[in-house]
Each structure stands twice: as C-alpha cells, then as structure tokens.
Design goal:
Number of strands: 15
Structural class: alpha+beta
Radius of gyration: 37 Å
Shape: elongated
Largest sheet: 7 strands, mixed
Order of helices and strands: HHEEEEEHHHEEEEEEEEEEH
Distance between the termini: 58 Å
C-alpha cells in the first residue's frame, strides 16, 4: 500500500501527461504536417550547426604603438600601351627623397599589342640602379681600362663614358637633350635604340613586391629614366622626342601585407582607360595596420586600406603640371585594428537546437489542431446538408 501510494504521488509531478492511445486520431493531414515539420527541423538544425562551426570574429581598436616594422606592398599591374623599356618604377618617402633601402622583388613582363606574353623571361627591375637600361650586345671583349668619349658632356667628376647610360647621365647633368642615340657609339653598340624601337607598340606587366619603411610615402609607374636633381625627383623624357603616352592600365592586385580571411582590397581588378594621352592617375591610400589572431594563437601582422582616386591630363596645353603615369600615395593611420578568431559557444548552439525543436513542434501542433477541427466542422456541415 505504501509503495502504491508513493507511485501515485510521483505521478502528480508528471508535467507531460500522456494521451491514451484510444483518444488519438491519425489523419492524412496530420501525417503531412509531421513530415513537413521534420524537414523544417532538419533544415534549421543544419543551419544552426553550420553557424556553430563558423568562427566568431571580434574586432578591437587600439592606438598603433609598433615600431621598426616594414611595410610590404604587393603589386600586379598591367600597362597595355607602355613598353617595359619606357616604364620606370620608383618608391619615395614623405621627405621626397628616393628610398635607398627599399627591398624589392619586382619583375617587368613584356606583352604584345593584344596583351599576350611576348617573352617567357621577365626582366628583373632594379630600383635605384642607374645601369638598368644598359643592354650589352658586344661581340668582342672591351678593354676594361678604356676611356670613351662623353661627346662634349665631360665634367670634372665624370671624364669617361664607357656605356650608353654614362652618356645619358652626362647629358642630364649638362641639361642637354638626349634624343639622338644613333650618333652615340656606346648606345649603338649596346642596341639601346633597337631596344626602344622593338618594344614601341608593346605593353608591360609589373608584378612582385616592395618592402619599404613603415612611413608615409608613394610609389609610381611613369615613363622615362628617373633621377634626383637638386633634391627633386625628375623623369627624363627627352629621349622620347616629345612622344605622348597612353596611361591605360589595370591593377589585378594591390595589397599592403599578407591577406587574412575576409579581407577586401579596394584596388583589386581595377581597370582605368585613359581617355586622352598624357594622363596622370593618382590613388590616395589610407593604410590601417591590422592584426589578425587565429584560434590557434598565431598572430598575423598585416594591413588593410581605403582609397580615393583622381585623374587629370597634364602638360603645357592644359596648364596642369605633373608627369603622366600612375601614382600611389599612401599614409598610415595612427589606429590599429585587431581581429580575434573565437569558437562559438556550444551552450548557445544547444539552446538554439532546443528552441528549433520546441518551436517547430508547438507551431506544428497548433496547425494540426486547427486543420483537424476545421475539417471536422466542414464535414459536419456537409453531413447536415445531406441529411436535410
């Protein structure tokens, strides 16, 4: 008796009283609702499970206090109307001086007029090296102690011009135009004019990276030999005899540092068609130092950026000063963004699953009850109508 009484008391605590089998009614509508509810629960469960497996990214904002780091600039750009022999690449810092400690690994790939690769061997671009335009096509050894003429451009510092580049440099210091390479033996021997003529209708792809100091500066792509004169950065265009340049270009990729999950580089796949010759394209870039911390604890120091574009036609005819080319001016933000990967809470996932099952089950029960009672009421009216 005591055991029976205890069982009766326990039954009173049952919050889920069971419906007797005799009072259950199985209908076609109920089966349909059950199947649809099961499918809906499965879809919602998979969605919740997929959300649980994704990582939660938490952003934070700090003042950038890092010192002594380098800024890695990744470049992949194509100039469809400027030959590689004409194109010069330079990097400068905020003072306007050319950076002498730039670590770079840039290549120039020749392209034909249709944009196809013309030479399988890209040319290594040597920033700041005045010998980059020298093309040796000598069939016999030259006397290393020779002293060749500078064609009247000799100075106390430079008595001999043993290659075409030396002659160009001597002319530049004198302020003379270098527009007749055919009459200079060194240039003729090295095939300087032939090189320029052979690439006249070609394009050029520039790819690789620059590693510069982490200060504001710029890098640019422009025609002509570049040099420093009276603390100013100058491009020598005299050798082109007043030729105008089409600066149509496309930027396949430009980033500052390594990519992290979800990064957006605004200049990727940018195409700029020069509507006129002698155009200057300027990109003003704001670089934001970024730290990405993965769930494994590995930290990636990189950067993201925003950009503003501007273009204009330069030259005496327009009254706008400047040089035709592509100029990227970048400055660094004093703030740093930190992204931290974290796994989502399992308890949150469990709560979501319970809510899905309970919510769908409850709503399905209400719909089933409404359908069942509506069907019974309609059937009852039909039966009464038949009876009369």
């Amino acid at each position: 008796m005591e055991k029976s009484s205890l069982m009766e008391r326990l039954r009173q605590f049952d919050a889920y009283p069971k419906t007797l089998e005799d009072f259950r009614v199985k209908t076609f509508g109920g089966a349909t609702i059950t199947i649809l509810s099961g499918l809906l629960m499965a879809v919602l469960f998979l969605s919740e499970f997929n959300y649980y497996l994704t990582k939660d990214i938490q952003p934070e904002l700090f003042v950038d206090t890092t010192r002594g780091q380098k800024l890695n600039i990744n470049i992949n750009a194509t100039f469809s109307k400027i030959p590689c022999a004409y194109l010069s690449i330079d990097a400068m810092d905020v003072s306007g001086e050319q950076q002498l400690d730039v670590d770079h690994h840039l290549f120039k790939q020749r392209l034909d007029e249709f944009g196809n690769v013309k030479d399988d061997k890209p040319e290594k671009e040597t920033l700041g090296d005045s010998s980059k335009d020298v093309v040796e096509m000598v069939t016999k050894p030259l006397d290393p102690s020779r002293c060749e003429s500078c064609y009247g451009a000799e100075t106390d510092d430079q008595k001999c011009c043993n290659n075409c580049e030396d002659v160009r440099e001597a002319y530049r210091k004198k302020g003379w135009a270098f527009n007749n390479a055919e009459g200079i033996a060194q240039c003729k021997r090295e095939g300087w004019s032939d090189k320029m003529k052979s690439q006249k209708n070609e394009g050029c792809q520039v790819y690789g990276y620059l590693e510069v100091n982490k200060v504001a500066g710029n890098f640019h792509f422009a025609p002509g030999k570049s040099f420093q004169q009276h603390h100013a950065h100058v491009h020598d265009l005299q050798a082109f005899g007043g030729q105008k340049f089409n600066i149509t270009h496309s930027i396949q990729h430009l980033s500052f540092g390594k990519d992290y999950p979800g990064i957006i580089n605004p200049l990727d796949n940018t195409v700029q068609i020069a509507e006129q010759d002698q155009m200057m394209f300027q990109y003003f870039v704001k670089v934001v130092p970024t730290t990405y911390v993965k769930t494994s604890g590995k930290t990636l120091n990189t950067n993201q950026y925003s950009v503003t574009k501007h273009s204009k036609v330069v030259g005496a005819s327009t009254g706008e000063s400047g040089l035709p080319g592509v100029f990227v001016m970048y400055e660094l933000s004093p703030m740093m963004v930190k992204y931290t990967e974290k796994h989502r809470s399992f308890m949150h996932f469990l709560t979501g699953v319970c809510a899905i099952i309970g919510g769908v089950f409850t709503v399905a029960g209400l719909i089933d009850s409404m359908v069942y009672h509506s069907a019974r009421a309609i059937q009852k009216k039909i039966d009464l109508g038949k009876a009369t």
